[in-house]
User: Fold this.
Amino acid sequence: MYNNIDFALASLFVFGILIGFHFHRKNLPIVQNKAFITFLILSLLSAILDICSALVLKGYFPVPKSVVWLINGGILYLNSAIPVCYVIYCSAIVNFFDKKNARQRNIFKLHVGLPLLLQLILVSISPFMYKFSGIPILFFVNQNQMFQTGPLYPVFFACQIYFLVVAVLIILHNRKEIPINRTVLMIAFVAVMIVAVTVQTYIPTVYVQDFAISLSAIMCSSLLQTPEEFIDKKTGCFNQAAFVKMTNYYLRPGEEFLSVTIILDDTLFITNAFGVSQMTRFLKMVSTFLSETFPEAEIYYLPQGKFTLVFQDYNPRNIDRYIFEIRARFHEPWVSDALELKLYSHICVSECPRDAKTPEAILDIIDLVTSESHQRSSIVYARDIDTEYKKHTAYIAHLLRNALAEERFDVYYQPICSTAEKKLIGAEALIRMKDENGEFVSPEEFIPISEKTGDILRIGQFVFDSVCKTLSGLDLELYGIRKIDINLSVAQCMQEILAEQILTIRTIHRVPSSIINLEITETAAAHTPEILLNNMKRLAAEGIELSLDDYGSGYSNMNYLLNLPFKMVKIDKNIVWTAFEDEKAEIALSATIDMIKKLGMTVLAEGVETKAQATWLTKMGCDYLQGFYFAKGLPKEEFLTMMIEKETYDF
Assistant:
């Protein structure tokens, strides 16, 4: 059949190297990788049979005629399957199956399966038809043991071309799913295969098919098969991208699997105390322990010290054993370079799809357990987490992750009125967030969650930067803006660099310090008194006013007023409303306001909703009022319009 087997031997070598390289690398067990390795193995077997056929034809190995039939039939079987593997491979790369429903996937299987079945039937019946009737169907072996094509061989050839055309159509239709260079490479592969198959079919003495495919396979292996993007470099485990891809792969057909996540509590401490390289060594030790102890599991490393083990076809009775082995090891110290540490951990167990039906839902459960560190036990089962709370928390956390990047945060301004001048002199800056549909999400919902996720730091910086940008472009005297109140979160107040950050942003935008009033809650003052005091002293020295926010809502510790450099106290709205209705509460509020004034501070009352309340609070000595009586939180443009109108109030 072939005059020269040099190209066949070269392709054999290439396929062998690629297969070895594939198994040497850490690959996800996904359709793309399974199709690629199947493609390589089938191509390797085809090359082997082609060499055997050539050697038999040259007379090196005399064999019975039946063996020649088997060899050539095997080649045709393999040549039928190789293009189909490539179709499946291309479909997996562009996520073709993920975007189709069950009916569409079944139609696709028919489009591919029927031509493949036709080829296999033609190959299978050809020897028998020729033996019993002497009629060649697809191929036959003549008296000289030479392979020859039959009258229906063009049908076989057309089927091969059909598969390659289907691959091209799938690539082009879904080209937005992959980079342009990959699209070009995949189509070039098809073009090479079409040329090679055509040449091999009509000029069988020119041995090019396997060699051409092997060269194209090298390019696919190096440019399309990139398992490194799914590997965490620190631990050698699969990363979060791999976790999302694989769990989505399992969940699509409703396959049951177990997710066990080990959450390390002290990675930040170890990193800060001993350095990144030492933390990496400990993570690698954990990775090694897990891979050796649970060889049947897929191991993933998620950000911030979380290892997730995924068990397929698990037995629920084994869950306790998994947990016991993990806890037993973490009860012992970990030793690296003479450094001995206990790694404290918590475990989150999710049985999917019962507990979570999407990869995002699994990650949200893990994040929820991670963030609720003060409430969780050492083992948390997803089934025990309140479903509604879990869904709501996961949804809000999802919104927070995307809101800043998608510019769905905005700053609103609630006006503040001076009781002495009976006019607006500034406002409090309020954060507002919208969901994907443009609907507002209450700050009471997303602020507590943002404090747990750490997003509150970015939100706080966004608010301060936005306010300074607005003020820097205004003629403040024209608008009559003398103060803008900005809330500081507990997390911000815990930062030693808080003052430096605020002063840097103020300097960049050239905003006068006297305009800024930073509101600090009693909770923040209780958490980090020393750090907060240092920040407050520096800010006060730069002329920035500091206020004690929501006075009366917490413990109302007198030490805060005496020892911290506050210039203003904001009375909580609930205290105002209660005092307006209750005589004893009114007496207490009056005494509180009088005390604050004698300490040399100004007073702002929140929650003013009526003219009567405004008049009453003014008589009690409040310097500033804020509430719906004047305006709710307004977009910047509406607030500036109110300020430019310079309306006076009668109360």
